[in-house]
Hints:
By secondary structure, the chain is of the alpha+beta class. 58% of the residues lie in helices and 11% in strands. The longest helix has 71 residues, at 2-72.
Amino acid sequence: RQLAVRSAQLQSTRQQLRQARLELEEARALLGVREAVIAAREARLENMSQRQRSLEQRYRETRYQLELQQNLQSDQAATINALEQRLQAEAEAMAALQNELELLDEEREELVSITETGTTVVKLPNQLVFTSGSTRIDADGLAALEALVRALESFPDHTISVEGHSDSVPIRDEFRFKFPSNWELSAARASAAVKVLTDLGIEPERLRAVGLADTRPLVEEVDAESRRRNRRIEVLLYPGELKLAEAALAGEPESP
């Protein structure tokens, strides 16, 4: 009889051990899932950090070379130290703007860049700024433009060109009374953005609104996604020195 009791106890102990092992495996699996989620989040944060550092570095290198060339060709009194500080402020402002726009834009694409001539370009997709099919700026669009205005504090002497771009699809018949073509639509959207920027405190004399319709596509239009990418507002920041050069080329007198 004692043997039977011990056998039953041993069987119960074995069942408890199997149950404990099952629970341990489940806990390990759950831990693995949570570790994978944490690793993915850490990888995304590291990627964003690397993109920010890369953007700051490329921005500073390009602008630094441009400004050095201009300093060598003129009698500017700015020192290299002051130039470095200004470029650092501009780079930090643009990196912060990219991060703010990423929070608003579901596509997580790079929206801030700089050309070889030193022109900073901020791309604002239409779906981020405007209510679908209209020139009305929605809440996310206002937030994006407010973030832009904060960044512009580091660009006090830049001309700001707001350029509207459309896709190549003709305006539908029911909207042609208001926008006969994509030229009018792209210009109206650029003007709407300029109006908000002036309301937010940007000096009107620094701004200009340009409608370019579908003449400068980012990508070839083959489907709805490519057309979506081409519908955008681009904000171009021209350094003050380039503004004077542009006026000289146009035969206009320089501002005092």
